Structure formats: C-alpha cells, structure tokens
Amino acid sequence: MAKENQKMQSWQVFHFARKYLGRSVLYAVFGKKNARSVDYWCEDPKYTDKAEQAYDPIKGVKELLSTLDDQGHTAAVRACLDYLRAGTSLEEETVPVVTELLPTLSEEKLADYTCLAEFQAAITRCESCQEVNARKKAAIEEIERTFAKYIKDCEK
C-alpha cells in the first residue's frame, strides 16, 4: 500500500524532537509556560482530536515564507532559510545579502545581464568551483530581485 503523504509534517518534527531530545529540552526552547502547547504540537492529528491544520510555530514560519515568496521576495526567503541553517551541518559558506530593488524594472533587467555575463566569464576562465558557484548564486539572486520588482510594479 502506497503512503499517502511522504513529506514530513510539522507535528512529526516536534514528535521527533521530543523523542530524541526530551520534553525538558523542548520546554527550555519554547518556555515552560508553553509546555501544554509543545505537547499538543507533537500529537499526530490522525489519532487525536487535533485539527489537521492546527497552528504550530513551524507552520507559522512556513506560511510566512510562502507568503513572502508569493509576493516575489524570494531573496528574503533564501536569507531566512540560510539563517535557519546557520550553526547546523547544512550551513552554506556564504549567505546572500538581501538588497533593495533598483528604481525601475529596466534597470533590474539590465543588472540580470551583468550577473549572467560575469557567471559565463567565470566559466570561460575555468575559475574554481567556489567562484563559479558564487557567480551562479549572484545571478539567481539578481533574477529573483527582477521578479520581485515585476511583482511590485506590474501586479497592482
């Protein structure tokens, strides 16, 4: 029988943390006054009266990031995810800097070409993987800023 939903759910993250770290660690992170809420977040809705869409902090952050992404603020979403990875084994070498948008969509589009040209030149010069990867990330971030400017200007 196939599994209906193979993606980890937020309650599973809390359940796993409680199982392997213990309640006391979760209570220390979220505060003892929230002990009842922490235990609630760990429950499988399939076996309790907890609503499938019940709030927990992980769902709140996910909703916030989805909303930012829907509004074209992908660079801010990436920066937040990098912040969340900081101090873990998933931490990346460089954290993208969220910058302000250029005044016009035309200027944003021109900036895309500059970043893409630098990326292509780095490949042509056979620069190190780290340098080419940095250029790739810069180009992606620039394109995301262009999309954010498009959303801001054209989707009103």
Q: Specify the structural class.
A: mainly alpha
Task: State the end-to-end distance.
Answer: 47 Å
Pattern of helices and strands: HHHHHHH
Overall mean pLDDT stands at 85
In helices, the fraction of residues equals 55-70%
The total domain count is 2
As residue ranges, the low-confidence spans are none
Main sheet summary: none
* Distinct helical segment count: 7
Keywords:
156 residues, mainly alpha, 2 domains, 7 helices, 63% helix, elongated
Please give a structural write-up.
This protein is mostly helical and 156 residues long. The chain has two domains: 10-85, no CATH class; 105-154. Helix content is 63%, strand content 0%. The protein has seven helices and no strands. Helix 1 crosses helix 2 (23-30), helix 4 (57-70) packs antiparallel against helix 5 and helix 6 (105-124) packs antiparallel against helix 7 (129-154). The chain is elongated and about 55 Å long. The model has no long low-confidence stretch (mean pLDDT 85).
Write the layout of secondary structure elements.
Elements: H1 10-21, H2 23-30, H3 35-41, H4 57-70, H5 74-85, H6 105-124, H7 129-154
Helix pairs in contact: 1-2, 4-5, 6-7
In short:
The chain is mostly helical. The chain has seven helices and no strands.
